[in-house]
DNA sequence: CCTAGTGTTCTATTTAACTATTACAATATA
DNA sequence: TATATTGTAATAGTTAAATAGAACACTAGG
């Protein structure tokens, strides 16, 4: 996997797993691939995987069973809350950054609308294939 | 100044200066504080400042005159384009991330609207001081 | 000419992230 | 009871970012 070399890999791994939990690609109680397998999949060292998983275990999002494997928490509300947190983080970041670029509240909203609309038009172009 | 220890300081310094150029706090042709002064202001090493400025000079946003100082480019259209780029980056990032969290286009727009609205209400509360 | 204030460059250290490798601990299963 | 598979931990080495400190190069002004 390709990583952004501007942010620590273990944080990017956490982000990937968070997203898979939130989108349901990883379901509550589901077993994760073995750490050694994850290391291969992500083309990264086992220690780096372990560092990511270790913090997520400490946070209660994963449950570790020595000799068996790592599992997604069964706590579904916790996962729902996680999604809210991740969304909120993103919103706070854009808002802060666009405000720092002197965009007003209205300009922020309309710029997002325009961006989404443009993305949509791009997708439409594929219909001509 | 406080930095996010998850992203290199010299990149954060670039971001600050970019923002000051875009918002007009630093005007075209204006002289920047001396590198040693900037290092003091940002509570950072001179070399780190130099690393940030060096790349911005290479990018053409700053002009360096040995023995005199560093100056913002006189090229106003270049600065206008910079703002567009920075805004676009932010929009691309949120869109990508929120989509990865399974939000639809409409949900992305409405979530931004709700967020801005909530921020507005928070600000109103200060009027009661 | 000299000095102070600029930008620029260099070397040496420290620290955090990552890698590589090995070993250990617990579980499941043949 | 072995053996394979799992998570966990420890040690050692590499790299990039940042710091500290010194030196060099150019400009302006007394």
From TrEMBL, chains A, B:
Keywords recorded for this protein, A-Z: DNA-binding, Transcription, Transcription regulation
GO molecular function: DNA binding; DNA-binding transcription factor activity
UniProt cross-references to Pfam families, sorted A to Z: GntR
Residue ranges occupied by any HTH gntR-type domain in the UniProt entry: 7-75
PANTHER family: HTH-TYPE TRANSCRIPTIONAL REPRESSOR YTRA
UniProt protein name: Transcriptional regulator
């Amino acid at each position: 996997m390709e990583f952004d070399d501007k942010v620590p890999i273990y944080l990017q791994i956490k982000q990937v797993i968070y997203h898979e939990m939130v989108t349901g690609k990883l379901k509550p109680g589901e077993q994760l691939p073995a750490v050694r397998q994850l290391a291969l999949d992500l083309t990264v060292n086992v220690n780096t995987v372990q560092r990511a998983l270790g913090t997520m275990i400490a946070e209660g999002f994963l449950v570790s069973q020595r000799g068996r494997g790592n599992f997604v928490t069964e706590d579904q509300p916790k996962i729902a809350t996680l999604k809210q947190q991740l969304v909120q983080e993103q919103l706070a970041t854009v808002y802060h950054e666009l405000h720092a670029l002197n965009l007003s509240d209205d300009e922020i909203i309309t710029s997002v609308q325009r961006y989404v609309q443009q993305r949509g038009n791009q997708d439409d172009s594929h219909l001509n294939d």
